[in-house]
Design goal:
Blueprint: E1 16-28, H1 36-41, E2 42-46, E3 49-51, E4 56-59, E5 72-77, E6 81-82, E7 84-85, E8 90-91, E9 93-103, E10 111-112, E11 118-119, E12 123-129, E13 156-161, E14 175-180, E15 187-190, E16 203-211, E17 216-223, E18 232-237, E19 247-255, E20 262-279, H2 286-335, E21 358-359, H3 362-368, E22 377-380, E23 384-390, E24 396-402, H4 404-410, H5 414-425, E25 435-439, E26 445-450, H6 457-462, H7 469-488, E27 501-503, E28 509-511, H8 525-548, H9 561-570, H10 588-601, H11 612-619
Parallel strand pairs: 21-25
Antiparallel strand pairs: 1-20, 2-5, 3-4, 4-20, 5-19, 6-19, 7-8, 9-16, 9-20, 10-11, 12-13, 12-19, 13-14, 14-15, 16-17, 17-18, 22-23, 23-24, 24-26, 25-26, 27-28
Helix pairs in contact: 7-8, 7-11, 8-10
Length: about 650
């Protein structure tokens, strides 16, 4: 494989020189894992593999366990390619040719046509995308787009589709399409017009040529071996500029839906040419700068000499005057019997670090919450009301206002409670929501947190949207890391649940809404013993919620989640708990392994419940997971460390 690469500079420093062409060439005569550069130059995502038997990239992986329905994958060249010249707003010109073959397997998922021919789906795309990590959706999306991508996600694709989806404007089940930032094709072409049946098992070759200056594209398709003289299936004007970043990634995506087929990419050549402007070298030399700097420094030193002498003389005179004044002041003080009070200057406060938690006044809190307006309320429970607030500096925060009756009912001592708030406010970790401060004015107890814009995990799990498995598993690991850090500080969260886990703008999980912790020195012996193990138990239940996509609280007539999980374990059908809304782009083995870890966390403390450090080792596959008991425990946990009372999952035996 030959690769030549030149990175053009798009900055505006220096005068602009001549325009040159930047060329990038990629060549894969076949795809074989023995090629050492293949692993470095090709990124495989989702259900994509390199087959040594076929010397091809295959999507989906035909050796994958289970059926091949609803799978998606991508094969992307690992390095970005310059596709757009920003100064001239000119897209790159490129030419690519590749050969592909669709294999329709005989299985229960595929139908047979009236003439006895197997019907498969869905299709393959040649794609230009802005990143090398996203996997698109399966089915008619062809692995090209994902519903979690931004609306302005820039992508260009040429699709080869073997399923007709009228909702996307497909003309038939044997067509090509040009897709610009959308799954709906800008232009669709019937492949039968050039005598090609995409999924007949033959090897087909594609030629795509794009002239960036003229904004003109030409696409040719024919059985492999016929050559470039094949008839053009589409040619016409096409401006790719709105759908390109300066640097993009190029490759292939494919997917299956209710019907399946194996998409083989057998060879691939790609060449791009983009224009770039060179900068004219400056006439200024380094030696000129050195000589100028030396002359300037000498001149400055010459000018400074007399000034330095006068400054020194002034300092000496001032020092003598101060010493004389101190001497006479001391002398007068010894002879003076007056009882005058000496007023010391006001002590100046040291500046506070900008991110350090501080005490807020009730006036600041009232202003930020618009006098605790109902319109600012985010939620409430039996112990507090939570508000969204905007501080005077424009920063959005969350204000949690504890109710007075909460302290009276549960017998909490406010002084100890305030110490606990200050203790947790000192903890900093990437997966913990920072506490920005507190307020104890007018008998109030208020805690101020950072505001997390994507909201809490329960809204994503049980709401309208569907989190993909990769992000769910990342949430599990983030939550585990945060609890390990807390426990290492001899603290516990004491309120672990999906509504206490928040997702930031990059969908990293951060844990907040603490049930407020007790240090081992400030708690009873029993409390310090159970608080961290209670966190482990509740972590296990949250893991089950993440996998199943349903709340721990059962709806009327519905079996509760923990009871159901253990029942499925007993009959060895744990995979049925995995949230089906995620589709088939799920690592089922990883999901079942995580479910085992969740169940392990709900064992009795003296019957195998792990520590959070061990849980992280299990998740990272650094340590084998102990075997679960064949049946469910008789009683899960006989104490709730939050209230000291038996309630809910913390102590309810199985029915």
């Amino acid at each position: 494989m030959l690769v030549s690469n030149f990175v053009a500079s798009s900055d505006n420093k220096g005068p602009i020189g001549p325009v040159i062409n930047v060329t990038k060439h990629i060549s894969f005569q076949d795809f074989n894992s023995n090629n050492l550069r293949l692993k470095q130059d090709l990124t495989l995502l989702g259900s994509a593999i390199v087959s040594d038997e076929k010397t091809s990239v295959q999507i989906p992986d035909p050796e994958q366990q289970g059926d091949l329905k609803h799978l998606a994958g991508r094969a992307i060249y690992s390095s970005p390619i310059r596709f757009f010249d920003l100064p001239s707003q000119t897209p790159a010109s490129f030419e690519t040719t590749f050969s592909f073959q669709f294999e329709v397997k005989s299985n229960s998922s595929n139908e047979t046509s009236d003439v006895g021919k197997l019907i498969g789906g869905s299709g393959l795309t040649f794609i230009i995308v802005p990143d090398e990590i996203t996997v698109g959706r399966s089915g008619p999306w062809l692995g090209m787009l994902n519903d979690l991508c931004d609306d302005d996600y820039k992508t260009v694709a040429i699709e080869f589709d073997t399923r007709q989806n009228p909702e996307f404007g497909d003309p038939n089940d044997n067509h090509l399409g040009i897709n610009l930032g959308s799954i709906v094709s800008t232009a669709a072409i019937n492949a039968s017009d050039v005598g090609v049946q995409l999924n007949d098992g033959s090897i087909h070759r594609v030629w795509i040529s794009y002239d960036g200056r003229k904004r003109f594209i030409d696409i040719r398709l024919a059985p492999d071996g016929r050559g470039f003289t094949s008839k053009s299936v589409y040619s016409g004007s096409l401006d790719l500029s709105p759908y390109l970043n300066e640097y993009m990634f190029v490759g292939f995506s494919a997917a299956t839906g209710n019907h399946t087929q194996i998409h083989n990419i057998l060879s691939w050549n790609f060449t791009s040419i983009s224009q770039a402007s060179l900068r004219i070298p400056t006439t200024e030399t380094c030696q000129d700068k050195i000589m100028l700097q030396n002359n300037t420094q000498a001149e400055i030193a010459h000018r400074k000499t007399p000034n330095s002498f006068f400054i020194f003389l002034a300092v000496v005179i001032l020092l003598v005057i101060v010493l004389i004044n101190l001497y006479f002041s001391s002398y007068r003080g010894d002879d003076d019997n007056s009882n005058e009070t000496i007023i010391l200057p006001e002590k100046k406060q040291r500046p506070r670090p900008p991110n350090k938690a501080r005490r807020f006044t009730i006036a600041e809190i009232a202003t930020a919450t618009r006098n605790f307006s109902e319109l600012q309320i985010l939620g409430s429970d039996e112990k507090s009301v939570t508000y969204k607030a905007t501080m005077l500096n424009g920063c959005n925060v969350v204000v949690k206002r504890f109710l007075t009756q909460f302290f009276n009912t549960h017998g909490f001592e406010k002084r100890q409670f305030h110490k606990e708030i200050k203790a947790i406010s000192k903890i900093r970790h990437p997966n913990l929501v920072p506490i920005r401060g507190w307020c104890y004015d007018n008998q109030e107890t208020i805690v101020v947190y950072d505001y997390i814009p994507n909201g809490s995990l329960d809204k994503w799990l049980f709401g309208v949207g569907v989190l993909p498995w990769t992000r769910r598993f990342k949430v599990v690991k983030d939550l585990a890391e945060s609890l390990v850090h807390l426990h290492s500080k001899q603290l516990a969260h004491k309120n672990v649940k999906s509504s206490s886990v928040f997702l930031d703008v990059s969908f990293r999980a951060v844990v907040g809404d603490f049930g407020f912790v007790l240090t081992s020195t400030g708690s009873t012996r029993f409390e310090s013993m159970v608080s961290q193990t209670a966190d482990v138990f509740e972590f296990g239940v949250v893991v089950l919620e993440i996998i199943a996509g349903r709340s721990r609280k059962s709806n009327p007539g519905e079996r509760d989640l923990l009871d159901l999980a253990w029942a499925m374990h007993e009959v060895q059908q744990k995979e049925t708990l995995v949230d089906r809304r995620m589709g088939a782009v799920v690592n089922l083995d990883q999901a079942v392994r995580a479910l085992d870890i969740g169940l392990l966390c709900t064992l009795n403390e003296n019957k195998g419940r792990p520590t959070m450090e061990e849980v992280v080792e299990f998740l990272n596959m650094e340590k084998p997971i102990p075997e679960l008991p064949p049946g469910r425990p008789v009683c899960l946990f006989p104490y709730s460390s939050t209230t000291g009372l038996c309630s809910g999952y913390a102590c309810t035996a199985f029915k």
